[in-house]
């Protein structure tokens, strides 16, 4: 069964970002806000999931075509707990 959803997350690291996704997703985000939302989510997943790779590859799909962006591994933010 398929369900229509405004946004979804999937993949091996998705279980690590459900809370982030639910809290930060906003309908009708501007394109750059959306790019930042996705890049941060993937970065958070990478920090917890060894199978999520070491870089962030984005494809921004619009009526004008596809724009691809790469955030190299050395530029992917890292997140640690400060306790």
UniProtKB/TrEMBL annotation:
It is found in: Nucleus. Its EC number is 3.4.25.1. Keywords: Cytoplasm, Hydrolase, Protease, Proteasome, Threonine protease. SUPFAM superfamilies: N-terminal nucleophile aminohydrolases (Ntn hydrolases). It catalyses: Cleavage of peptide bonds with very broad specificity. Its main location: nucleus. InterPro entries: Ntn_hydrolases_N, Pept_T1A_subB, Proteasome_sua/b, Proteasome_suB-type. GO terms for biological process: proteolysis involved in protein catabolic process. GO terms for molecular function: threonine-type endopeptidase activity. The keyword Zinc does not apply. Pfam families: Proteasome (PF00227). GO terms for cellular component: cytoplasm; nucleus; proteasome core complex, beta-subunit complex. Signal peptide: none annotated. This is proteasome endopeptidase complex. It comes from Echinostoma caproni.
């Amino acid at each position: 069964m398929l369900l229509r959803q405004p946004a979804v997350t999937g993949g091996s690291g998705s279980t690590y970002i459900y809370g982030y996704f639910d809290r930060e997703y906003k309908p009708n985000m501007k394109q750059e806000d959306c790019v930042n939302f996705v890049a941060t989510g993937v970065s958070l997943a990478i920090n917890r999931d060894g199978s999520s790779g070491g870089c962030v590859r984005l494809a921004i799909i619009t009526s004008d075509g596809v724009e691809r962006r790469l955030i190299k591994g050395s530029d992917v933010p890292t997140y640690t707990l400060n306790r």
